[in-house]
């Protein structure tokens, strides 16, 4: 049986994170050669070992997705080695701040996620798009929490950051479409296996709920009465990267378990 992404090449920025590693494993299982990118090799290497142990192919590059020259050089290297870049997926952390009313938030806390998210997605998408235009094919993916259009109170800098990147990606889809390049995104929130007390505290500050409480809160509000699972996100990302989604661009796939209904 032919694998869904047989022979394709994907670059995943933030590939050592919870969602990044899950997507990387799914891509590799479906035949993709995965290039994992991040700033911390200690987080990337275990993912490469897992993929190799399962019979897949993965490589590591240590760089900052905000470094334009490093990103451009890496994409050129990947394209030269594999004769193209089929998928680019940016999943780096942005430094979001939640739980603080906007009127009490500092300018730096608001802008950090907005600037980091938009800048890194612009740099990585632009580098990939230049190669994809030449080959007349490719898929650029991104992910956010859906709090941009949903306007949820208490989401702090996350909503503006989501909205900025999502708007950029839609404009990019309009420009790249005539070249055969698709741009899609995923909405998700509170992916169960990626929640931890440390991560939630880093974003929500003092008074942030525990990981277990956060998952229970999400499940209580979601239409499906459960938090999204890592497999849910990874499988949708794999579908969007595949030719089965050839008619989709400039749109978001909703993987929130019905936390956001659209």
Order of helices and strands: EHEHEHEHEHHEHHHE
**Overall average pLDDT:** 93
User: Based on helices, strands and strand pairing, what is the structural class?
Assistant: alpha/beta
Q: Figure out the total of helices.
A: 9
How many domains? The number is 1
Distance between the termini: 35 Å
Quote the CATH topology: Rossmann fold
Largest sheet: 7 strands, parallel
Number of strands: 7
CATH architecture: 3-Layer(aba) Sandwich
Low-confidence stretches: none
Radius of gyration: 18 Å
Detailed description of the structure:
This protein is α/β, with parallel strands linked by helices and 262 residues long. It has a single domain, classed as 3-Layer(aba) Sandwich (Rossmann fold), CATH 3.40.50.720. 47% of the residues lie in helices and 15% in strands. It is built from nine helices and seven strands; from the N terminus they run βαβαβαβαβααβαααβ. It has a seven-stranded parallel β-sheet with strand order 3-2-1-4-5-6-7, sandwiched between helices. The chain is globular.
Distinctive features:
alpha/beta; single chain; 7 strands; Rossmann fold; 7-stranded parallel sheet; 9 helices; 262 residues
Helix and strand topology:
Blueprint: E1 9-13, H1 18-29, E2 33-38, H2 41-53, E3 57-62, H3 68-82, E4 87-90, H4 107-135, E5 138-144, H5 147-150, H6 158-176, E6 181-187, H7 197-204, H8 211-221, H9 230-241, E7 251-254
Parallel strand pairs: 1-2, 1-4, 2-3, 4-5, 5-6, 6-7
